[in-house]
Each structure stands twice: as C-alpha cells, then as structure tokens.
Design a protein that fits this description.
about 375 residues, 13 helices, 7-stranded parallel β-sheet, 13 strands, Rossmann fold, alpha/beta
C-alpha cells in the first residue's frame, strides 16, 4: 500500500502542537511499519534534520505557494503523481478534490463553534486561518473515509456538530502521546545550561500562554496579579514564546502594568529544552478555556511537575485525578490553587506521583499503531 502523509509544516523551525503530533506519528510509523510505502509531503524549510527518509519512507519537498494553494492544488497533484492509495492530512484541513481515499486528523472544531471566546481576540493570522478552515472543513468531513480526533470529548463535539450517527465508524478517537524525553531532569549541568540559555528565574510557575483566546492568558494574568498581592514570597511567572507588546496590552487591560516586573518571557523554546524547564518549575499552569487534548499537561506530569488545569472540555479526560482542577472562568480559583500547591507538600507529592502514573497511559507508539490499523481498514 502507498500511503501519503501531509506534513506541510514539519521542516519549519518553530514547531507547535499539531506539527509535533504529525512528526511523532511519522517517526513512530517508521519504527513499526517496514512494509507499506510512505510519501511524506512537506513544504521546504530549514529544519530538514528533524525527519530522515528510510527504506520505505520518502520525504517529498513540495512547493506551491501559500497554505491554501499548497493544500488545494500542489498536494493532491503530488499524491496522484506518486500513486498514493490513501492520503492522510494531519492538521485539520485537506484538499476538497482528491482522487484517493482521505484520512484527516481533525484535532478540534473550535473555529466552527459559535462561542464567545472565539468572537474576539487572536491575531489576524489566526482569524484568517479560522476563516479558511470554516470554509474547507465541512466539505472535507463529508468526503473523508476516516476522521481521526484526539479525545472522546472532541469526538462527541464533532459527532454532534456534523450530525454523525452514534455508531458511525468514520469518526475515531485516537489519543495523542507524550515524548519519552520528557522525564525529571536531575543533571545539574543540563539544568544550569537551560536556565542560563533562557535566563530563567530561580523560582517560577510555568505557563504556555499565547494570543489564542482559548489559552486564557488574560485570566491567568488576573490570577497571578492577585497571587502576588496575597503572597509574601511569590513565584515569578515564566511564559513561553509570547510577544512583549501583546503582553503589555493585556496588562493594561487588566489594570496592572507593574506585573511585567514579575513575568519572564523566554522567546521560543526548542522541544528538547522543555523537560529542563518543566523540571525547574514549581508548578505548571494549564487553565485553558477549551482544549481538544492537552499534551503539555502530560509533559509536565512526566517531568514530575504538579499541574493546575481546567474542568472544561477534554482536560479532565486527559489529566484524570493527577491535576488540581479549577474553573478557568474564575481567576480566583487559579490563585487559590497556586497558593495551595505552594503550601501543601502532601498535595504536591500526591499530584506528582499520580502524574507519573497518568502520563504512562499515553504513548506515541500506541497512537501510531492505531493509525496504522486504521490505514489497513480502508485500504
């Protein structure tokens, strides 16, 4: 069987969630499948060492202009040229017109939901991307042989939104995994290297905020402001890959511009440095308004870092009983959870131990095997 996999953004330097999921899928398929022939379609970029070809895996750099034209024109032409029996598109969208069976990974349908958190906020790039997905995804869903999503919560959302019958086999939930390199880092030399590289403070809470409204950055900043006012020896807040001008605007909005003195912006952090940052942090904040899965929670758990997360969407499903659960719409609950974790050593120890056990339930190898089984179902 000839299998095409869309990996448009795999070679870009600054990879994010969906890019890492696609990369881990392909790497693990390379380990477990030596029989089928694979064609990985990527857009040319500079990080060519992240994925290497093997005997039955060809990497096909593919030009074709901006994202929509690359996906709608260049990708289906290439898949036909290489005689693919299946094309798997990994990042929510896919060609509308395609000659072979289509598998699409639909991580979420947040951009299709008419909820207040999506009506404002976010960058123009994010808004334009959402407009494209709102147009393309319903058509892609209609013609897909299989639709993979990443949690049972999201499966139910997709089923209800598109009116799938409850027993429709086209819609499948396959959990994401977590990298084996995420583990407690105890090597002091490595910890000091990462601490110096990103100029990290001695004691901090870690937050993966960004400009997407679902990440609840404004709520976290409100909670952190209150935390500072009620704590004699507070932590700093470390934020990954966040623009200072966007942060200044948010601090003005919440009325606490002095909060900038207690926040450290790291810039972009490469994936291999993340385990050290988790290991150095006192707690990990993940109080999103809406997530389809939540890989960073598992990364933190594998590194022995206690997690604060939300009672909404997929987060209780993925975190189990291994996180401190709060209402993300109530900043005071985030504040209280931070204070509680810093005062209660028994609670910290309990969450750390439960976190190790919870994270063991998820692996990229298991995910890749389930996807491979799905390919064989429709071949």
């Amino acid at each position: 069987m000839k299998i095409g996999i869309e990996g448009q953004r795999l070679f870009r330097v600054k990879k994010h969630g969906m890019d890492m999921v696609a990369l881990e899928l392909i790497r693990n398929l390379q380990e477990i499948d030596k029989e089928n022939e694979y064609f990985i379609f990527v857009k040319p970029d500079s990080d060519v060492d992240c994925l290497k070809p093997t005997a039955n895996f060809q990497i096909i750099p593919l030009g074709g202009g901006p994202y929509p034209s690359w996906e709608q024109i260049a990708l289906p032409k290439a898949a036909a040229k290489y005689g693919c029996d299946i094309l798997h598109c990994t990042s929510n969208t896919a060609p509308i017109k395609l000659k072979m069976p289509l598998v699409v990974t639909l991580h979420d349908i947040i951009y299709l939901e008419s909820i207040s958190l999506l009506k404002k906020g976010g960058t123009w790039y994010q808004k334009m991307g959402n407009m494209y997905r709102r147009f393309v995804v319903p058509k892609v869903v209609e013609r897909s042989q299989r639709i993979i999503t990443v949690s049972h919560f999201e499966k139910n959302r997709i089923r209800d939104f598109f009116g799938f019958p409850a027993d429709d086999k086209r819609l499948v939930a396959i959990y994401n995994g977590v990298g084996e390199h995420f583990k407690p880092i105890t090597d002091q030399q490595e910890l000091q290297r990462v601490k110096a590289k990103y100029a990290l403070p001695d004691h901090f809470a870690f937050f993966l905020g960004n400009t997407d409204p679902k990440k609840n950055t404004k709520g976290v900043l409100k909670a952190f402001s209150d935390y500072l006012k009620s704590t004699s020896d507070p932590l700093k807040l470390v934020m990954l890959d966040y623009d200072k001008s966007a942060l200044d605007a948010l601090l003005t909005e919440i009325g606490d511009k002095n909060l900038i003195n207690h926040i450290h912006l790291t810039g972009y952090v490469i994936n291999t440095d993340l385990p050290s940052i988790y290991s150095l942090s006192k707690l990990f904040l993940y109080p999103s308004l809406r997530e389809s899965f939540g890989i960073p929670m598992l990364e933190a758990m594998r590194c022995g870092t206690p997690v604060i997360t939300s009672d909404t969407s997929s987060m209780p499903e993925v975190s189990g009983d291994a996180a401190l659960i709060i209402d993300p719409y109530k900043p005071e609950e985030i504040t209280a959870a931070m204070k509680r974790l810093m005062k209660d050593d028994n609670l910290r120890g309990d969450l750390i131990n439960k976190g190790f056990k919870q994270a063991e339930k998820f692996s990229w190898r298991a995910m890749a095997q389930e996807v491979l089984n799905l390919y064989h179902e429709i071949s």
